[in-house]
Every structure is written in C-alpha cells, then in structure tokens.
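User: Run a structure prediction on this.
Assistant: Running it now.
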Amino acid sequence: MKRRGVFFKRLLKALFVLAVLAIMLAVYMRYIEPSMLDITYISIESSSVDGSFKIVAFGDTHVGNGKTVEDLFELCSKINSLSPDCVVFLGDLFDDYSVYEEDPSQVSKALAEITAGYKLAVRGNHDVGGGAEWVYPDIVNAGGFILLENENIVLENGINIVGSAEMLYHSPDVSGFVSEGFDVLLAHEPDVACMADGYELQLSGHSHGGQVYIPISFVMDRILPQGSRVYVRGMYEKDDGGMVYVNRGFGMSLAPIRLFSVPELTVITINGGE
C-alpha cells in the first residue's frame, strides 16, 4: 500500500512537470518565437552584374493573424536599416482580407515607409482568396511597390528580375524571360522552381519554413502547404546550377504560432566582377 502511494505521488509530480512544460511551450510558440526576427545574409558573385547590389526579401506577413499593422511598421523600419537597393515582397500580405477589420490603407502606409530604389512584389495565394484579388494590386501600388505577374523589370546593372504569377490559383509562365544578365525569379510558391529553369536565383516564401518545424517526413507532409513540398526552407542548388532560397516569412497562417521557424528577413548581396 505504501509503495502504491509513493507511485501515485511520483506520477502526479511527473504529470505536473509535464503540464508546466506544455504551458511553457505554448507560451513560447504563441508569444516569444513569433516576435523574434532572424536576418539571413547571402553573398553571390556574378560577372554579369556591375558593382554591388543589395536585395532585401520579405514575405508572408499575414497581417490580421497574430501580426498587426504596427508589427508591419516595425518590420519596414528594420528593412530600411539594412540600406537595400531593392526590396522584394514575396506575397501573402493579409491572412484573410475578408475578415480584416482595420484600415487597409495603413498597410499601404507601412509599405510606403520602405526606402529603396526598387520595390517589387508578387502575389501569394492569400492575395487571391478572401476578396484580396481585387484590392491587392492597389494596396501594394499605394505602398510604392510594382506588382509583377509573369512580367519582368531589367535594372541598369545587369540584373533582370522576373515576377511569377501565383501558382495555386493562376498559371506561372516565366520561361521567356531568361536573359544574358543575372536573372532573379520572384515566386511565392517555391515549387515554381520545378518548372522554371535558367534562373541564377529564385526567391520564394509560402512554406513559413514549416511554421511548426518538426523534421520528420510523416509530420511535415501534413504541415507543408501545396506548392512547397520540394523546396521548404533555406538555400537549395538546382541541377541547372541555379539557386532557390525559401524565406521563412514574417507572419503565420491557420494558427498564430511558430516553433523552430523564427520569422526571417533575407539580405542578398550580388557582387559583380570576374
């Protein structure tokens, strides 16, 4: 009887410890990791580029689901502190525009705070659904961004930036834009890379780096959204020699939590020369 009492006391103690750890993990996932920010620096050498050129990439802000317009203002201020030549937005501005109750012009105002010679954007899947399809171009344009959808813009230093149409609702068609210069493809869904060869660099988001990143295939196959099953997070080298970088994004979707996938800004410096 005494042994049984000791056993139950130990069991209750273990359950209490597990409950405390679960609460701590929940607090970390909801409030701590989502408020963090990693800055990833990438340096690329290319003889096709004149001088040095800095691109700052961000995306998946999902304003309205754990991220506010005030958070977006802070992020844009951080982007300015990096002194970019070009800023690219990789899509998914609002989480669900149909239920967003704040003033969307404030989102444009935050984007307008970004100072860079070039400000370019592509559309994400959340920029199509929920009625966002009709307002997204005006909102990003008011923020000083040029929206590229199966279009390109050639910069004076030999960099050709191509923006893909969104993959899940629309049809990417970027095969005709590869140039003699340094080609950068912006595509919200990273798996666009499976149908786009010849680009030296592709920048994408969409996956949130898993958002809750548990590197077990059985788990990740159920977490990762369609369009990010091949390329999930970080840098990849393709068979054609091009590179794909998947940014972990700033915001969250479905649930306002993150685990082992800290929000990210990506800084890419392209250095010219032999």
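Residues 37-272 form a domain with the Purple Acid Phosphatase; chain A, domain 2 fold (CATH 3.60.21.10).
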